[in-house]
Amino acid sequence: MSDMAKNLILWLVIAVVLMSVFQSFGPSESNSRKVDYSTFLQEVNQDQVREARINGREINVTKKDSNRYTTYIPINDPKLLDNLLTKNVKVVGEPPEEPSLLASIFISWFPMLFADRRLDLLHASDAGRRWQRRHVVR
Fewer CB in a 10 Å sphere around the end CB: N or C, the chain? Predict the structure, then answer.
């Protein structure tokens, strides 16, 4: 096996290991059940909802009987906030989850490092051929 193939396999193994490490430290998928948006609206209108935590299009709902579930806003609903406040539902806005700093750095820099290595190899092989052409003994 050539050195180039060994290097490529090594970098792929490193990438897989690092991505699995970053993924294990990332946010985990919640185990809450999913409920459709229309059921959520019905429960709000029936005064069954105590709290709504809104994160982008995701709403984590806590009912007055302490049951929890997740629903998603299918379209922009301009009346939702007014409806929640009218029914005395505690509304909590949460910032969107962002990838960790290490994951962002790895994702953005790894392709550049790989491309740089490939360009170095290409440049070295091209330069070597040019040197041989100039210094061939005739």
Answer: C
